[in-house]
Specification:
44% helix, Alpha-Beta Plaits, alpha+beta
């Protein structure tokens, strides 16, 4: 299974939703699981973005589909990165 890091920033609408319902974060994580994406870890980040979520999926297309679904709601903006374990990277160079 491949791992991905998704950074996200709340839009004004997203901040309003979160203020009214902080548990929405966990609800979205459950939705991701239904889409075949496992949330491994999640952090609130102080800086250039608001959240960092580490996910795992066996199918890259599921990641694309999930991110487009989340973006279409207008509550966040994201950037997604494929995370390659260091040992896997080293092996690919040998």
């Amino acid at each position: 299974m491949a791992r991905y890091i998704i950074t996200s920033t709340l839009t004004d609408d997203g901040a309003k939703t979160l203020k009214k319902n902080p548990g929405r974060i966990k609800e979205v994580n459950a939705e991701l699981k239904e889409m075949g994406i496992q949330v491994l870890d999640q952090y609130v980040v102080l800086g250039n973005f608001d959240f960092m979520t580490i996910v795992e999926s066996e199918d890259e297309n599921k990641i694309f589909k999930a991110v487009v679904e989340l973006l279409s709601r207008g509550s966040i903006r994201t950037a997604t990165y494929r995370a390659i374990p260091v040992n896997e990277f080293i092996e690919s160079l040998e």
